[in-house]
């Protein structure tokens, strides 16, 4: 069984009944096996779906309604607890299948390591791939406590796979000195602390290219998103992240996939984090699925 049947009754609002008729597919990656501080992001996908019940289907920002696009919520992948390598293999295999069918994947994490197998499959499909990475953390470590499979390593792995010059990071405000040195020396683009203004400057050079967008919810200040495993003070607002999504949506980017990761609901009794995440996903669907 690839998908956890326990989640079959929880879908994102207005999800189509079948994958076959959909242009885009939402899927959950409930994994937090390698986190370095607080676990719980494996419960993020289901809570984001539940929070979507409170959303309007219409976006006044984009003047689009969810009924205008075809997407299917496939539920959560069934990942073996505590086994990062097998979990990664399952995600990568599923991604190969989705891309073979011509679908645009929208992943819900889960910790940020889940982005790594997706990028491997994406790069096979799109050799000219570029990555837009929006996050509080650099995620450029080679290992954490001796483990190369860690939520602190996916962007370093991406740089080594597709070339650092094709990786663009925004909002970064935390990491080891060596990570910032690597960013400077490798040729990747890194915007510290801010997202929207540096993103506006970069988007024209990515025009027409296949782009994968990965957003870690902890790019937001903890005031806006306390429900995450590694909260980091000094972040951006929900308003700025929405504006950044809209900036990408209004550009000539060819977004071939996206994910939203690191929502850990247990640390946010107000539920503002999954509520915000569900709105970001709505805007990504409406903005990226043309």
Automatic annotation (TrEMBL):
Its cofactor is Mn(2+). GO terms for molecular function: agmatinase activity; metal ion binding. It is an enzyme of class 3 (hydrolase). One of its GO terms (biological process) is putrescine biosynthetic process from arginine, via agmatine. Pathway: Amine and polyamine biosynthesis; putrescine biosynthesis via agmatine pathway; putrescine from agmatine: step 1/1. CDD domains: Agmatinase-like_2. This is Agmatinase. It comes from Halobacillus halophilus (strain ATCC 35676 / DSM 2266 / JCM 20832 / KCTC 3685 / LMG 17431 / NBRC 102448 / NCIMB 2269) (Sporosarcina halophila). The gene is speB.
């Amino acid at each position: 069984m690839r998908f956890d049947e326990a989640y079959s009754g929880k879908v994102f609002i207005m999800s189509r009944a079948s994958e076959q008729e959909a242009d885009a597919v939402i899927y959950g990656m409930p994994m937090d096996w390698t986190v370095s501080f607080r676990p719980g992001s494996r419960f993020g996908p289901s809570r984001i779906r539940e929070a979507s019940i409170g959303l309007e289907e219409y976006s006044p920002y984009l003047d689009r309604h969810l009924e205008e696009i075809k997407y299917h919520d496939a539920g959560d992948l069934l990942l073996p607890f505590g086994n990062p390598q097998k979990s990664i293999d399952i995600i990568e295999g599923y991604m190969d299948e989705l891309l073979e069918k011509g679908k645009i994947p929208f992943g819900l994490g889960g910790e940020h390591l889940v982005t790594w197998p997706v990028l491997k499959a994406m790069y096979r499909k799109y050799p000219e791939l570029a990555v837009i990475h929006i996050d509080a953390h650099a995620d450029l470590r080679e290992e954490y406590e001796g483990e190369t499979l860690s939520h602190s390593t996916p962007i370093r792995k991406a740089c080594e796979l597709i070339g650092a010059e094709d990786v663009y990071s925004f909002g970064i405000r935390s990491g080891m000195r060596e990570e910032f040195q690597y960013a400077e020396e490798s040729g990747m683009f890194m915007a510290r602390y801010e997202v929207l203004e540096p993103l506006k400057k970069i988007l024209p050079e990515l025009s027409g290219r296949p782009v994968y967008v990965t957003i870690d919810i902890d790019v937001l200040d903890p005031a806006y998103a306390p429900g995450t495993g590694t909260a980091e003070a000094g972040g951006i607002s929900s308003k700025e992240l929405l504006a950044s999504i809209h900036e990408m949506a209004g550009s000539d980017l060819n977004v071939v996939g996206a994910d939203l990761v690191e929502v850990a609901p247990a640390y946010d009794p107000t539920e503002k984090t999954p509520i915000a995440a569900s709105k970001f996903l709505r805007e990504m669907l409406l903005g990226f699925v043309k």
